[in-house]
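Researcher: Good morning. I'm working through a list of sequences from a screen, and I'd like to move beyond sequence-only analysis. For each chain I'm collecting a predicted structure so we can compare shapes side by side. This is the next one on the list. No need for commentary yet; just the structure.
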Amino acid sequence: MVARLLRLARHPVRPVKNTLHRLAESYALPVGRTARTRRLLRAAVPDDPHVLVIGAPHAVRQALPKARLDVAGTGPLEKSVTVVSDAMGEASLPRRWNAVVVTDPSLSAERLAAAAHACLPGGLVLLLMTNAMMQRPVSVPGAVVEEDRRTRDVRLVVARVLT
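Model: Good morning. Structure tokens for this chain:
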């Protein structure tokens, strides 16, 4: 208890920032990075899709409340994970979703290949990026980039899967 109080005294901004981040993920606050992410996703995703999320699903759940949402992850005991897979490489996921949203900050080539392969032909691969990834050029294997939407600190790249 004393150690926690000393840490709070040394770093008074960190607990407030963490609390605000948790609130933004759990409640649909009208301001902040999560709100900007929700607005970008609502504008890009068609109505009533079947969506796979690779990464943190919080903003996607808030943005698409009517969507049938699956979350890929490696922890079978996590409540949010519905598809147990590491989502690395083409053979790691079946092809069944209309849209795949990648919120994981590590946009490796294997992760992008898994996302493109998991999408039905004509489906969308949506890549959400924040601060450090904003300037990085992105190409999705097997898909054509249609849109590159940006707000202050959020970038959404929309790619359509060809085959």
